[in-house]
Structure formats: C-alpha cells, structure tokens
C-alpha cells in the first residue's frame, strides 16, 4: 500500500522534468546528422533501379520485390525528412559514456514513480534503439499489471557496440563482453542496484548472457526471442512437445526461414566486410538489404494497427544505419559471435524470473516446454499479431507483457 501512495504522491506532486543521470562520465547527447542527410538524399535520388524485374513472377520469394523497393525510394525522396525524424528523437534524453574504451550511446528516461523498475531494453540487427521508441512514454508512466499491482519503469535503451552512435568494439568482442559493460552501465554508472532486461534478436543474446552472468543485479528477463537454436518439427516431436495449430504454423515459419531466409546470416558471419563495404555508401542498397528483413520477418499486416512498422519506420531505420556509418560494423556482430546461438537447453545459475512472449510471425519459435529449460519461466504469452520486431510490430502487446515483470519483481 505504501508503494501505491508514494507513487501517487510522486505523480501528482511533480511537474518538473524527470530526474536525469548526473553521474560523472555520462554526457548529454543530441542527434545531429543533418549535414550527412543532404548528401544521403542526393545518393538516393541518383540511384537508378531497373524499370521492370527480370523475373516478374518470382515476387518477394527471390528477395525484395522491385516495385516495393521503388516505392520506398520514391517515399524517401518525396515523403521523408531526416530533420523531422531527428527532431522527434531529440525529445528524448540521450547520453553517451565511456565503457572499457567504447563510446556507448543510450537513452535514459526516468519515471516519476519512485518505485519504478529499472529496465534495460536491448535491440538486435537490423534493429536499433528506434524499435523501442513507441514504448518509452507508456513504460515510464504508472500503469498496472494484470494483477492490479502498480508498475512503471525507468528506461535505459543503449545502442549495441558498433550500432548507431556506439563505437565499434575491438576485434574479438563478443555479446558476453557487451553484457559485462551494460551491467556496469546500469549499476556503476546509473546507480541501479538491480534491474530488469528486455532483449530481442542479438539483444536477447546479450540479455540472456546478462541473465546468467549477473544473477544478483539482473532480477528479471523478458524476451520474445532466445539465443538457442529453435527445434525443428521432428525434434519437437521427439521431445514430446505437443503443438497447437498456431504453434504448428510458427514451427513451419521458422523452418521455412531457416531454409530460405538466412543467407544474410551466413554472409554476415563469414564475410561481413564484403557486404558491409559494398553497401556502406549506398543508401538504396542498404534499404534493399535491411528493408527485405523488416518486411519478411514481420506480420504480413505490418503497418496497420496495432503495428507501426510502416514504410516511414523502414526508411528511418535504414537512414540511421547509413548516417551513422554503422552498416559494416553492425554486420560484424555475426562474425564476432560464431557461438551466439546454442543447442544445449540447460538451466543457467540464476533464480531470476524469465518472461517470454511468442509472436506468431517471428522467425523463430520456442514453446513454453523449451523456454522452461533455460530459466525460471514464470510467464509465457502467445500473440496472434506481430513478428520479429514487436516494439514496432505490436507495441501494445509487448507493453502489456513487459509490465507483467511487476508481478514478479521483488
Ligand atoms: C581474434 O581471434 C582470432 C581467432 O581466434 C585470432 O587469430 C586473433 O589474433 C584475435 N585478435 C585479437 C586482436 O585478439
Ligand atoms: C516421450 O514419450 C514417450 C512415451 O510416453 C517416452 O517413452 C519417451 O521417453 C518420451 N521422450 C522424452 C524425450 O521425454
Ligand atoms: C549466482 O551465481 C553465483 C556465481 O556467481 C552462484 O554461486 C550462485 O549459486 C548463483 N545463484 C543461483 C540462485 O543460481
């Protein structure tokens, strides 16, 4: 009860801006890429795409559809303003800090609720901090879990090393190294004694590594994706996992993705410099490479409510990679983490709660029986709408599930 009263007083008693980190070594940061953005637009305009596809009947099965790419290019030229995007993004509190010699960028937004749970949100590839922007305000505001308990969050959204405004790490840097510096960011720099983590894609790899390495500070993990190879239909059968029709669909989608959608994975794991340098100064090339993934890995209804994964989102995500010159360095996360996905589903040395959200159109599927093997699973929820980027593909569902952390927070 005192929690609820204190929280209420905090909400009604404060019109001031939320407190921000004042820790030494943490510097406020504003995005300013307008100079580069005008050159980017010139390059987009100068790029000539073919008038018609070589094989019109293959559609998107052979890679990004030419008509879609041309439409995106037209929208980039006539209906997209980096300056406008930047202005929106600069409404949030951005910072940079030095961690083990890396300049790390992050957004830090504090709730007015003194009992707010510190929450670290981790993106993957081809994601960025942009994936979580639709959630920031709602997460910081006081709300309720499904039990009716009050819940709110202090939000920290870093850019992974080598992504956006965070510098590229040294040669053999792994996600376990990123886990270490992010634990230090939350505790030593920002002063949170314990915190929760949400991670997706490579961010779930970093988040899971934090979950197992730092069991006294990481006191909850929420994920829609896991750094474990999903089981095939045959393997699930052998493990006596029975599947609902929707789950059967999800297994099939994962198997299809593995058969036809992971060429990029092998390229970035083995020759990141080739694809990186080929596209580093080519915004429409990056649009084709990144846009294909954003379209293919999300719900076919993407861009219609509740999804905000529309063409503007694809354009600003690509522009962020291009303007921060991080396309090549970001691709290296695959090369640097050959062991990033594991086959052995075993319990890690932690008793912290694990919460999992399964989105129908994600490219990997993990049934509750398997998730339970890799952590203290306390919550598992399936969603019929959404895919690999739930922060933009189904933000209300992700928000509801993240808030459930409040039920298990001690
Ligand atoms: C990185 O790892 C490779 C393979 O193990 C090794 O050959 C190389 O010397 C390492 N580089 C650095 C800078 O440690
Ligand atoms: C699956 O179920 C069968 C029949 O109940 C049992 O013999 C087998 O050991 C089970 N397999 C696993 C991996 O649990
Ligand atoms: C937490 O990790 C330590 C090692 O750092 C280990 O000794 C301890 O058993 C772990 N706690 C749990 C609950 O697994």
Automatic annotation (TrEMBL):
<keyword id="KW-0732">Signal</keyword>
<keyword id="KW-0058">Aromatic hydrocarbons catabolism</keyword>
<feature type="domain" description="Epoxide hydrolase N-terminal">
    <location>
        <begin position="26"/>
        <end position="132"/>
    </location>
</feature>
<comment type="similarity">
    <text>Belongs to the peptidase S33 family.</text>
</comment>
<dbReference type="InterPro" id="IPR000639">
    <property type="entry name" value="Epox_hydrolase-like"/>
</dbReference>
<dbReference type="InterPro" id="IPR029058">
    <property type="entry name" value="AB_hydrolase_fold"/>
</dbReference>
<dbReference type="GO" id="GO:0097176">
    <property type="term" value="P:epoxide metabolic process"/>
</dbReference>
<dbReference type="Pfam" id="PF06441">
    <property type="entry name" value="EHN"/>
</dbReference>
<dbReference type="GO" id="GO:0004301">
    <property type="term" value="F:epoxide hydrolase activity"/>
</dbReference>
<dbReference type="InterPro" id="IPR010497">
    <property type="entry name" value="Epoxide_hydro_N"/>
</dbReference>
<feature type="active site" description="Nucleophile">
    <location>
        <position position="201"/>
    </location>
</feature>
<protein>
    <submittedName>
        <fullName>Alpha/Beta hydrolase protein</fullName>
    </submittedName>
</protein>
<keyword id="KW-0378">Hydrolase</keyword>
<feature type="active site" description="Proton donor">
    <location>
        <position position="334"/>
    </location>
</feature>
<feature type="active site" description="Proton acceptor">
    <location>
        <position position="388"/>
    </location>
</feature>
<feature type="signal peptide">
    <location>
        <begin position="1"/>
        <end position="16"/>
    </location>
</feature>
<dbReference type="InterPro" id="IPR016292">
    <property type="entry name" value="Epoxide_hydrolase"/>
</dbReference>
